[in-house]
Amino acid sequence: MDIFNKNVCRCRGISFEQIEDAIKKGADTVEKVAEATNATKGCGRCKSQIKDIVESKTK
Ligand code: FES
Questions:
Q1: What is the pTM of this model?
Q2: Is there an atom of ligand 1 within 6 Å of 43 CB?
């Protein structure tokens, strides 16, 4: 899947690995990932993608 190879949040330059790392450290909601990484704090378009990643990692 190409989301694994590019920045999930282009505005803030946040990679899939950084999102994954934040989730591993306990960020189990989009809001917590946003706090931990600054992702979603630009245009906000990456939110649904981050939500998908959070859901796939926390189930
Ligand atoms: S791509 Fe994440 S805030 Fe714009």
A1: 0.88
A2: yes
The whole-number average pLDDT for the span 17-33 is 97
Decide: 22 in ligand 1 pocket, CB within 6 A: no
Domain edges within the chain: 2-58
pLDDT score for 38 = 97
**Closest approach atom of ligand 1 to CA 10:** 1
Distance CA 25, CA 20 (A): 9
Position in ligand 1 atom list of the atom nearest CA 39: 2
d(CA 20, CA 43) in angstroms, rounded, equals 21
The correct answer on CATH 1.10.10.1100 for the domain covering 2-58 is yes
User: Which two structure tokens, joined as six digits, stand for 9?
Assistant: 């949040």
